[in-house]
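Something for you to look into today, if you have time. I want to see for myself how the chain folds. Leave the record below and I will have a look.
***
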Amino acid sequence: MSPRTPWGTYHQIADALRSRITAGAPAPGEALPSEAALGQEFNVSRTTVRRALAELESERLIKALPGTGRVVCTPQERHNATGDGPPPAQYRRIAAALREQITSGELAPGAALPSEAALVRQYEVSRGTARQALSELEGTGLVVAVHGKGRFVKGDETSER
């Protein structure tokens, strides 16, 4: 059994990576080393590395690109449209877009929501981020998951699936 990583180590790793990014290495658009490589470098588990990377993703310093890994965001990607306050988490942005489609009627009661894989491609996010967005909508009661079939806008039709 491996020794436990001290509490908060991921903050230290995030700080080290943040310093590198702000120094320009890697540059915007360039990929970070893999989770495994970072785990070896910092002598920690991939879970600890993931927590550090999640911190940097929430600050919009990096983003996950399916098939590529995590890359450094451009200055434009780092700031939201208004330029004030932190940007919303990516899953919240996706959930808000889907919520708007539901409330506007674009996605009618009983309509199937895009799959996790479709959301990954459309928004260029990780599968976990897509899943979190869909789960948030389930939690609000707008969406129902039907085992083996997908997620649907809540309505009378969904109970018959």
In short: The chain has seven helices and four strands. The chain has two domains: 9-78, 90-160. The helical segments are 9-22, 35-42, 46-58, 75-78, 90-103, 116-123, 127-140. The domain at 9-78 is CATH 1.10.10.10 (Arc Repressor Mutant, subunit A).
